[in-house]
Amino acid sequence: MTETKALIVAAGLGSRLKHLTKDLPKCMLDFGGKTLLERQISVYKNCGINNISVVRGYKKNKIQYKNLTYFDNDDYENNNILNSIFYAEKIINGNIIIGYSDILFESYVVKSLLESKHDISIVVDTDWRDYYVGRKDHPIEEAENVILNSSNEVVKIGKIGNQKLEVHGEFIGMIKLTDKGSKIFKENFNRLKKLYWNRPFQRAKIFQKAYLSDLIQELANIGTKVHCIKIKKGWKEIDTVEDYQNIIKEFS
Question: What pLDDT is recorded for position 165?
Answer without folding.
Answer: 76
